[in-house]
Predict the 3D structure of the following.
Amino acid sequence: MKVAIGRFGPYISHNSAFVSLPKEIDPLDVTEEQAIQLIEDKRKKDAEKLIKAFDEDPDVKVLNGRWGPYIEFGKLNVKIPKDKDPKSLTYEECKALADATPATAKKGRFGKAAPTKAAAKAPAKKATKKKK
């Protein structure tokens, strides 16, 4: 167990997991009991995130996120309609919802559509100067 101050503030590192320290706790004055309690709270919170997993495909999970439950279908995140209960979803329903979800365009760093690979590799054209 190690307490450190990182780029995003003070944290505790334990078994390759990181737990942020609240602002009211000074990183220099953290007791072992406080650190253990924070680590246990983080583990409990992470365990509550998973609602359901499927044996048919381990990449499909029903998770509880910041803005409510959603389906993680590989790399695609799918909203669950309000009229459906996340605990009672079947694999087939999750697959149907994922198929019905339109693919979104990936956005670049500044909110604009990311350039395609071919456009990224093409060199920029130089402007030619006119001679007088």
